[in-house]
Specification:
Elements (H helix, E strand, L loop, with lengths): L5 E8 L9 H15 L4 E5 L9 H6 L2 H10 L3 E2 L3 H4 L4 H8 L11 E3 L12 E6 L2 E9 L3 H6 L2 E3 L2 H12 L5 E7 L2 H10 L5 E4 L10 E3 L2 E5 L6 E9 L7 E9 L9 H15 L3 E5 L12 H14 L3 E5 L10 E4 H7 L5 E8 H11 L2 H4 L16 E4 L1 E5 L11 E4 L2 E2 L5 E7 L15 E10 H9 L4 H4 L5 E3 L3
Parallel strand pairs: 1-2, 2-3, 6-8, 8-9, 9-11, 15-22, 19-24
Antiparallel strand pairs: 1-12, 4-7, 5-6, 10-11, 12-13, 14-16, 15-18, 17-22, 17-23, 19-20, 20-21
């Protein structure tokens, strides 16, 4: 007697980045798809960066709101992205994921102290649904230097995945990789790994309307922010036969959809998050204006904060990290979060004077201060001008861009183009984002886990800081 044909559907999301307004629509869409799938099991997987501390719900609950959303939606397996791995301390992650109701699979992150995955993470999982064995492994982008500072050891993703796939392939009917590595890496993995039915991707926010078939592997990606759900339908003639991809697509999620469980839960987390962020951190007697196209007190305050925190001779930060002026009066942690939401950290670089001068000259041009920046942890809108501390810059506003022979002074002495200066700046610049000459610095020291809003909080509490930030660093000289 021949065994009956079998079907299985895999649904996947990635890079939701705490867009809570889309989580109820996603759950409603999932319910529709499960009903439409008919026969055969339906599994739901997320490929990381579900969390983003730019959201009040995530910041106020330190990620618990996201775990609740994952549990209530009914995910069957997830992996982590850099927004989970790099923006939460060890102990917070351990507490968060101890309550998750599905496997967290990632094979290239280990605890430095033990050389093993943390207790809440598995190198792989084997899920049994209606007698079909689904092997799931995952990997996340290996930001080695950053992870090391947080007590993690990263492994080469391809080598780690190959080991897990070779282990899983003989044991399972369907082999799925959850890859928070980006599309180029996924395409390479599909060429080099054997026996993988699908690579569900994230990190680069790619949306593939239909899977790319490479070496028999379906390479997939469902965009960002919960706007799409990926759907894969596999079939086989009977037990013991090989599964083949029958259909693959990305479906747009209607933001008007809703259901009765997740929507009220998300609303409660928003209320709770706002309550937590009502803590007063400072009182100010005057507003600090912000100008992302030039110098302003709030930008200077951020530069002061970074210089103080890094203990360096001078600092360079982009004013676009700030989303508005700092008002007069009661300043809460929620206000600092709203005004400086990026999970960006300070760092120390040894930077040649010539590279400092190049970045400062670029900062005077609209091409740079009005440039839109995406990724690298940046949650602002435009790059913004450079705010500095420890420097004095004389410039002529009437000259053409790049013709400006600016005069730069560090501690009252002319900046030496050939000298090396220790500079407090931002980790995103080391990825050549924005003011690229800053990435020419050497001997980078990354200062995790404090974000810029934490540094602003410290600086606001320092006596005299509000007076200092009103002292001009950039001086217009008409010659």
């Amino acid at each position: 007697m021949e065994s009956a044909a079998q079907k299985i559907t895999i649904l996947h999301t990635n890079d939701i980045h705490s867009h809570f307004e889309m989580m109820s629509p996603i759950a409603a869409e999932m319910a529709k798809l499960k009903t439409a799938a008919g026969e055969g099991p339906v599994l739901l997987m997320d490929i990381g960066d579900h969390m983003d501390r730019a959201a009040v719900e995530t910041e106020g609950t330190m990620g618990q709101a996201n775990i609740d959303m994952i549990n209530l939606t009914g995910y069957d397996a997830v992996t982590i992205g850099n927004n989970e791995g790099l923006t939460f301390p060890h102990e917070i992650l351990s507490a968060l994921y101890s309550g998750i109701q599905c496997p967290v699979v990632c094979c290239n992150i280990l605890e430095s102290s033990t050389g093993e995955p943390p207790g809440w993470m598995k190198r792989h999982a084997i899920l049994d649904r209606d007698g079909i064995r689904i092997g799931v492994t995952g990997a996340t982008a290996a930001f080695t230097a950053f992870y090391a500072l947080l007590g993690w050891e990263t492994l080469d993703p391809e080598a780690a995945l190959r080991e897990q796939c070779e282990l899983l392939a003989p044991q399972v009917d369907l082999l799925i990789v959850l890859s928070h590595l980006g599309l180029p890496a996924d395409q390479q993995l599909a060429e080099r790994l054997e026996g993988v039915h699908a690579i569900l991707g994230g990190h680069t926010h790619h949306m593939l309307e239909t899977p790319q078939m490479i070496n028999g592997t379906a390479v997939c990606g469902a965009g960002k922010f919960g706007r799409y759900v990926g759907v894969l339908r596999f079939e086989r003639a009977g037990a013991g036969e090989a599964f083949r991809l029958a259909q693959g697509e990305c479906l747009a999620v209607d933001p008007g959809l809703s259901e009765h469980v997740i929507a009220p839960a998300a609303a409660l987390h928003l209320v709770h998050g706002r309550e937590v962020l009502q803590e007063t951190v400072a009182m100010t007697g005057r507003e600090l204006a912000l100008d992302t196209a030039g110098e302003s007190p709030f930008g200077n305050l951020l530069a002061q904060a970074v210089r103080r925190f890094t203990g360096t001779r001078l600092s360079l930060v982009n004013s676009g990290q700030l989303l508005g002026p700092l008002p007069e009066g009661n300043i809460t942690s929620g206000m600092l979060h709203a005004l400086c939401p990026s999970p960006v950290n300070a760092c120390i670089l040894n930077l040649r004077g010539k590279d400092i001068r190049t970045a400062l000259a670029q900062s005077l041009t609209e091409e740079f201060y009005d440039k839109a920046i995406f990724g690298y942890g940046f949650r602002g809108k435009v790059l913004g001008s450079l705010a500095v501390d420890g420097l004095k810059i004389l410039y002529d506003p009437r000259v053409m861009p790049y013709d400006n022979g600016i005069a730069v002074f560090a501690d009252g002495e002319p900046l030496d183009d050939n000298a090396i200066y220790q500079v407090g700046t931002l980790d995103m610049f080391t990825f050549r984002a924005g003011y690229e000459s800053i990435a020419n610095g050497s001997e980078a020291v990354f200062l995790l886990p404090n974000f810029l809003r934490d540094l602003l909080r410290m600086e606001l509490q320092r006596p005299g800081s509000l007076d200092e930030c009103r002292v001009a660093r950039w001086e217009s000289r008409v010659t």
